[in-house]
Amino acid sequence: MARDEIIHDPEYGNKAEAFEAYDDIPTNPNLGNTIGDVINERYGRREVLRGMLGVSATTALFGSSALVAPKRAAAMTAADSRYVFDELAWGNDERHHIADGYNADVLVRWGDPITADAPEFDVMNQTPEAQSKQFGYNNDYVGFAEIEPGRGMLCVNHEYTNEEVMFPGLGRQDRTGFEGMTKELVDIEMAAHGGSVFEVVKGADGKWSVNRDNPANRRVTANTPMTIDGPAAGHPRMRTSADPAGMTVLGTINNCAGGMTPWGTYLMAEENFHGYFWSDTLDAEGRPDVSAQPEADSMIRYGVPGRWYAWGKFHDRFNIDKEPNESNRFGYIVEVDPMNPDAMPIKHTALGRFRHEGAETTIASDGRLVIYSGDDNRFDYLYKWVSADPVTEENSRFGSELLSEGTLYVARFNPDGVIDWLPLVHGEGPLTAENGFESQADIAIDTRLAADALGATPMDRPEDAQPGPNGTAYVMLTNNNRRTPEQVNAANPRPESNFGHIIEIREDGGNHSSPKGTWEILVLCGDPAIAEVGARWNPETSEAGWFSSPDNCAIDDAGRLWVSTDQGSGWGRTGKSDGLYSLETEGDLRGHAKLFFRCPVGGELCGPYFADNDETLFLAVQHPGTDGTKDYPGFERDSTFEDPATRWPDFDPNMPPRPSVVVVTKQGGGKIAV
Ligand code: FEO
Ligand code: CA
Ligand code: CA
Ligand code: CA
């Protein structure tokens, strides 16, 4: 569908939904080159399509432990789950819900002051100055850096802004060419992006609260100066008129998920950065035309400029006609020192440039730091980065050279269940000057093009990838409604996948830095009662327990996996709100999911982050009241500032819904789900 058709299609009720639907048009050139034919030859396309594979073929495809033989399953029931809690009922309404016996308290909301000198929130009189000291919009990643038991710095990403529910009287802007956007509104949006770092304290009553008086509290925004580090630092492609050295960039944008390093710094992933860039050079159909740009191939592969925000109308650096290199300076992992507000954040180009969903870290058994990161685009890739040196006491600090030197790998999922991690190293294989990669800087900037050249496996939108115990990693593949039957491959087995799946990786030798491992599909998501969906769960999973569109995930101290979902406007297909689920990875209950928390209507669930010895769980409810509200029975229209589907969490008639962080604790104290 053409861009304009999607923008005006009533199915897409807000800009974010239209953006998601349009902007993920695959730019990967390798789609004719998948291994789908292998699977089709072996099992027959119709069988794969209809989810009707026999047990032997299914075992070969999805791994023996993904299926539990009925006899063995009978020995284990849902009551034997390692996650001890009574499952929540499923549904979707204007409030959030938590399993019985737990509290889920709102900790901080969009607009809440987070520094001592921040003004109180005044939703009718927003300013960039106030917003830059208040909690930002659309909280996604949540991390926690402990100072002492019961006290630490909360680190929260602010992914994007929804102008139609954020600003009074404005309405949706992509349909009008952003005619309502003023510089003042753009500057508020820029201040609402980035991240928030602030102290939180657990009181004697077991309740957490924000301490806005800690002088280390700060906002990181789309205007915060940051240092560029790694192979692309100072490269001519990183230079702009404002920064002729190519060493300093203003701001970070579309920070989706992230991670915490072993030394307690906060990693912010830059995801859909392309959407913020503008151009006035349009083709006959009104789409950006980059054909005259010297870096046209790279811009096309990254979707730059997206023109989903009006920033480039007021700030030349976001207009590629005026500042073509600025977009090369976004799409990285940013490191922030949560303890030192004067420490300039660092963009680590060694970790590559793509639509980084997250940056979850672990120390491999050989002592090196490993960071997993998905490129969240239909048919894009899964990456991991391995430091050159092992983690030592000396290099365990902010700005450590550890994050400057290492090897970035991209994943090839072979149909025999082996995963090969292909190194993105200049001079190796096709990554040579002959093929357009003059140095490692070109690989850092054009990571996608380099990964294309290596033949990585095009995936169903890789979201969070979480290292687990013993060399395991869990990869959330959220959905991919554009995969055709011809493009199916072993690791992405369903065409037109609306519900997503989760892959488990076991790195060789239990060592996360290994260049090889094995993989299998842990669950195929969606409703197991509908054969055409082709879902695969442990048979003990209840009607409330199955889910769709896994996005973020976490591993608690006990090594147990938790998954949060983002169905976007697709929740109408399941009738379920987004939420948090436990997902068993071991034993006879492997593949068994249980619902623990659910979002108010229109919101996606982010975080999750376990802290405080698993006694505290931080969750982020992003964009409450926005997505798919036309499917919300009784409401059935798009939300606006004046008329939202929910006014969560305040339920104040003068306040729109507010993205907020929720803190979950057990009533009476104790570890969660134990
Ligand atoms: Fe921002 Fe990939 O979700
Ligand atoms: Ca996400
Ligand atoms: Ca995670
Ligand atoms: Ca998502």
Automatic annotation (TrEMBL):
Superkingdom of this protein's organism: Bacteria
InterPro entries attached to this UniProt entry: PhoX
Pfam families: PhoX
Region (Disordered): 209-241
PANTHER family found in the cross-reference section: DUF839 DOMAIN-CONTAINING PROTEIN, SLR8030 PROTEIN
Descriptive protein name: dTDP-glucose 4,6-dehydratase
Organism field: Dinoroseobacter shibae (strain DSM 16493 / NCIMB 14021 / DFL 12)
